[in-house]
Amino acid sequence: MGRFAVRPRPGAYHRGRLRTFLRTADGVRIDAAHDPGAAVAHGTGGVASDAPGDLAIVVAHGFTGDLERPHVRRAADVLARYGAVVTFSFRGHGASGGRSTVGDREVLDLAAAVRWARELGHTRVVTVGFSMGGSVVLRHAARHEEGAGTDAVVAVSAPARWFYRGTAPMRRLHWLVLRPEGRLVGRYGMRTRIDHRVWDPVPASPVESVPLIAPTPLLIVHGDQDSYFPLDHPRMLAEAAAGHAELWLEPGMGHAEHASDDALLARIGGWAASRAGRRPARH
After folding, report:
1. Distance (Å, rounded) from C-alpha 257 to C-alpha 157?
2. CA–CA gap between residue 125 and residue 111 (Å, rounded)
């Protein structure tokens, strides 16, 4: 499994599902799982696939999520109709080590998961991120990292810029992250261990990252009832893409995984299966 993976966990194989820990470039241990999904169900690697197991969809959850949360599992189960699915828990979440940096060093966690998918033999890899995970997949795709790059990227309910406090949920999130008592609530109430250190340096924002993603296919999905990030966020991201990205503004949709119904997730899976690998040469 390469230098980014350690030995599978006891009882890791269950109905074809592989559970392991990955090691990130900065040494953090990340809980991860691989579900063969459509590669087993259809024997073709999924919808729109022409090689066994060639497509993997890597799911990047939102803040306070983890790979065992019901809303993350539901999203993964729907996406598994279209190919294999890799889920993982970001640092500081669930059984993963380290502390959450709320979108900064999490790009290393995603890179380890994508690299693992490649090591398992998947020739097409799509990243799908929700909320904080949406910002991470955008920053990761902008890196075009050799061996851990992605063939298409989907950002759902992602912020466009850092430090946004324009809604009540985001003001509560800042209290959770920046205040000692908030981090205690995060640790014991939400099973999320948050790093107390401020960003230094501040990482590139999602809107700064988007222009660097081309030619990788990019889909931006956002609900018009999102209580965290209003519609100027997805519109800023789409504008920064200068015509390269597709933008889906979903009527009646709220925020992230909880608000993504099965029909939307199926549309995302279909988009991923049809776009991955269709990349023009870079100039």
Report:
1. 9
2. 11
> Domains plus CATH for the chain?
18-165+204-275 (3.40.50.1820)
Strand partners, 23: 29
Query: d(Cα 19, Cα 124) in Å, to the nearest integer?
Result: 21
Rounded to an integer, what distance in angstroms lies between the CA atom of residue 57 and that of residue 218?
14
Residues 6 or more apart whose CB falls under 8 angstroms from that of 164 comprise: 170, 229, 233
pLDDT in tens, 149-193: 999 999 999 999 999 999 999 999 999 999 999 999 999 999 999
pLDDT over threshold 50, residue 283: no
Residue 250: count of CB within 10 angstroms of its CB? 20
- Distance, CA of 62 to CA of 16 (rounded, Å): 26
**Helix axis angle, 132-143 to 106-119, nearest 10°:** 70
Q: Which of 204, 206, 272, 207 is closest to 240 using CA atoms?
A: 207
* CA-based max dimension of the chain: 52
Both structure tokens of 45:
């690697």
Q: Which two structure tokens, joined as six digits, stand for 7?
A: 């030995």
State the Cα–Cα distance between residues 109 and 95, nearest whole angstrom: 13
Helices (H), the chain: 38-41, 70-79, 106-119, 132-143, 168-178, 180-189, 206-209, 232-240, 256-259, 262-275
User: What is the helix (H) or strand (E) element at residue 33, kind and residue range?
Assistant: strand 29-35
Q: What is the pTM of this model?
A: 0.90
Instruction: Quick: pLDDT tens for 242-252.
Output: 999 999 999 99
HEC string of 142-165 equals HHCCCCCCCCEEEEECCCCCCCCC
Q: Residue holding tokens 């090591």?
A: 119
Residue 14 in 3-state DSSP?
Answer: strand
